Amino acid sequence: MSGDQIDGYGGPAAQGDLVLDGAVRARANINVALIKYWGKASAKAPEDANLPAVPSLSLTLDGLYTETTVRFAPDLEQDRCTLGGAPLTGEALARVSRVLDVVRRRAGVASAFDVRSFNHVPTAAGLASSASSMAALAAAASRCAGLPDDPAAMSALARIGSGSASRSIFGGWVVWDGPAARPVYPAGYWDLAVVVAVVDAGRKKIGSRAAMNRTARTSPLYGPWVEQARGTLEAALEALEARDLGALCQAMELSTMRMHASAMASSPPILYWQAPTLAVLREVERMREGGVPCGYTMDAGPNVKILCDVASAHAIAARVGATAGVRETYVTTPGGGVSVELVTQGAS
Ligand code: PMV
C-alpha cells in the first residue's frame, strides 16, 4: 500500500486539513502480546476507557491486517460502519462511535462518519482482529478530521476502541503502559516468527473486556497478578535487549500462565483452553527439551501462538499441526505500523 507509514521513530506532529472531498484509508496489522494486558485502571471520563492496570509488550505481525476507509457523511444522522460489507449495529457500532466521538470533539466537528472496514485476518486463523480494526479506524478518522499526525495520540485513540489496539499503531516490538503505547524495537530488530496453532476458530464464549472485568471483580489472584506484572515485563525487556530467546519465552510463558490462572480463579471461572490447547503446550515443551528454542502464549481463547526463530518456524508448524485437535497452523513474522493514504472521491 502506498501512503505514509508510521514507524513511530521521530518526526514532529504535523496538523493536517479536514478531508472533505474524498476519504482516508488506513491499514493496521494485528499484534500478539508476549506480556499480557489483563485488567483496566478505573476510568473517570470516556477518554480514560481501557487504561491498563498492567504494562504489556507485543509484537506486531505482518500480513494479517484490517483496512478501513473513513469519510465524512454529513447527511447521515449517526455513524455508519460496515465490516466486510455487513452493517454493524448495537454494541459493535457503539464502540466505533465512541472512538469517532473523541475525534469529533478534538477536531471540533459534528458530522457523522461513514466507515468501511475489511478484515484480512482469515476467520479460520482464530485470531482476534479487534486490535487491527480499532487501530485502522483511529488512524483513518484522525487523518480525515485533520488531527495532528501524532502516533501517540492515535494510539491513545485506538485504545478507546480496544486496549490492545493501542499497540497496533506501531510496528515491531511495542510497550503499552499508560494512555498510549510506544515502539521499543522495529520489526527487523530480530528474525523471529510466530506460529499460530488453531484449535478453535469460533467466537469465544466470553470476550476479553467482560472476562478481565470479572477477573478484577472476583478473582483472588487478580491483586497478585497486577503486583507482579511489571517484574515480568522488565525480565522480558532485558531478554529482548539481549536477544535471548530462551529468557524471553520464559517471561512470556509466565505472563501467559499468570493471566490465565487469574481468570480461572474468577467466579464463575473463566477457562479458555480446550484439550488440544494443552496438547500443544506439551509439544512445545518437548521441542524445547529437544533443543529447539520456542515458547507458547495464549490470549482470550484456546489457540496457541508459538514464538521461535524464523529458521525453525516451518518445522514447528508441521509438528504442532500434527497434534490431535489442531485444525490449522499459520506462520507469521514481525510487521510494520499503521499506514494511511488519501483516496479520491468514489473509491472505497
Ligand atoms: O484489548 P482487548 O480487549 O482486545 O484485550 C486483549 C487481551 C489479551 O489479548 C488477552 C491480552 C493482550 O495483551 O492482548
What does this structure look like?
The protein has 348 residues and is of the alpha+beta class. It has helices spanning 90-107, 130-144, 151-161, 165-168, 208-218, 222-241, 245-264, 275-289, 313-321, and strands spanning 4-5, 23-35, 56-72, 80-83, 86-87, 113-120, 173-176, 181-185, 192-198, 294-297, 304-309, 328-332, 339-343. Helices cover 35% and strands 24% of the residues. The strands form 2 sheets. Strands 1, 2, 3, 4, 5, 6, 7, 8 and 13 form a 9-stranded mixed sheet that branches. The protein has a 4-stranded antiparallel sheet with strand order 10-11-9-12. Helix 1 runs parallel beside helix 2. The two termini are 14 Å apart. The model is unreliable at 8-12 (pLDDT under 50).
Summarize the SSE layout with pairings.
Blueprint: E1 4-5, E2 23-35, E3 56-72, E4 80-83, E5 86-87, H1 90-107, E6 113-120, H2 130-144, H3 151-161, H4 165-168, E7 173-176, E8 181-185, E9 192-198, H5 208-218, H6 222-241, H7 245-264, H8 275-289, E10 294-297, E11 304-309, H9 313-321, E12 328-332, E13 339-343
Helix pairs in contact: 1-2, 1-3, 2-3, 6-7
The structure holds (3R)-3-hydroxy-3-methyl-5-(phosphonooxy)pentanoic acid (PMV).
The site of (3R)-3-hydroxy-3-methyl-5-(phosphonooxy)pentanoic acid has 15 residues, from helix 2 and helix 5.
